[in-house]
Amino acid sequence: MKKLTVMIVSSVLVSSFLAGCTSNQEAPTKPKSITLNALFMKQAGYSEDAIKEATDAFIKANPNIKVETTFVPYEALEQKILVSNGSYDAVLIDAPWTAKFVKAGVLKEVTDKVSEAARKDIFDGALSAMQYENKLYGMPWLNDVKYLFYNKEMLTQAGISNPPATWDELIADAKILKEKKIVDFPLVWSWKQAEALSVDYTMIAASFGGQMVKDGKPTLNDKPNIEALNFMYQSMKDGLTNPSSLEYLEEDVRGVFSSGKAAFALNWTYMLGMANDPKESKVVGKVGISTVPGTSKGPGATTNGGMGLSIAKDSKYPEETWNYIQFLASKDFQKKHAKDALPIWKSLFSDSEVVATSPELISVSKSQYEHIVNRPVVPWYGQLSTELQTSVQKALAGKETPEDALNKLQEKAKEIASK
């Protein structure tokens, strides 16, 4: 009887021990299923279909992760992010918003998540747009800048063999075109009182060697900035710039150029395809693209219109969100959709398949991307841009001299920066 009792007790103890071992060495459980929410914009750059297709591929590769995508108009994107209160994990941000969003505490820092090798392969202008105070707050994703577009046929009729390399050459060519009555207003711009005007002024001022902000302080009335605004005003006074430019946005510029009523226009990448689309344009096959003109001091700069993907500060799943962002920013995705937007990766500009999408554009971009400038990366950029648009418009309309307009703007900018 004692032996039987010992055997039973021993059996129970062994069973308990084995059960304990099993519980400590359980088979891996399935990862917890989570849902990420990502916020994008409706227009320009990568299409909704491209983003949704890539998102589906990410979900297939990560079956425990579901991703809900939301698309809003660009005009609603900034405010949507600021009031999101944890509604989104991944958010698309425009270059001028980085500093403001960091100060508002809505983005997670990702400085340590991007390797040195990756940084060296990304264009500096695209990377710097996601930085504030030497820290990184997002992954560059949508790459876009402005270029000089020109009507090849008009230039040939005027005896002009090459697109202008400097602003002086642009004015000289425009005068020839006007004198020969080839076109009434050779130049057309998006100079309406809107962000488009801030974009153009940033680009032109930088080409003259100017900066609007240095070391966090406004420098609006520096000599190069005044020279740039003088150039803009003079082009209108001389009847070379279409006077309706003061009411035009980028789509208006595209329409004027595509209808054959302008010889030169500055616009984003998308205009190249649309100006060569028979359904949209009367100048198909006559469209040239070149780098932004510069001065005798150096090549022309272009404004960064790129956007990045960031992790929202309140995201419950920052690691999974970063994996999703990396998936969308990958070379595979950007190579596949190079027709929609040029890659952020320098190495892809030597890829034969990418080059084949638009050889002329790729060739020009290699040069232009080395000279990208960002609108001032300061938390108060939004207020500065609003004041800038008003001041520049007054000068262009002849209501104030460029120097007076920028002197007054400088004082307003000091007030804004001090708050």
- The percent range for strand residues is 5-15%
Radius of gyration (CA) equals 27 Å
Fraction in helix: 40-55%
Domain module tally: 2
Fourth CATH level, the homologous superfamily of the largest domain: Periplasmic binding protein-like II
Mean pLDDT: 90
Distance from first to last alpha carbon: 91 Å
Quickly give the structural class: alpha/beta
Which segments are poorly predicted (pLDDT under 50) over 5 or more consecutive residues?
Answer: 1-24
Give the C-level CATH assignment of the largest domain.
Alpha Beta
Pfam family, one: SBP_bac_1
Organism: Paenibacillus marchantiophytorum
Keywords: Signal, Transport
Signal peptide: 1-19
Would you write up a description of this structure?
It holds the Pfam family SBP_bac_1. Belongs to the bacterial solute-binding protein 1 family. Residues 1-19 form the signal peptide. The protein contains 18 helices and 15 strands. It has 419 residues and is an alpha/beta fold. 43% of the residues are buried. The protein has 2 domains: 34-144 and 305-373, D-Maltodextrin-Binding Protein, domain 2 (3-Layer(aba) Sandwich); 146-303 and 380-418, D-Maltodextrin-Binding Protein, domain 2, CATH 3.40.190.10. Helix 2 (48-61) links the parallel strand 1 and strand 2. A 5-stranded mixed sheet has the order 2-1-3-14-6. Strands 8-11-7-12 form a 4-stranded mixed sheet. 46% of the residues lie in helices and 14% in strands.
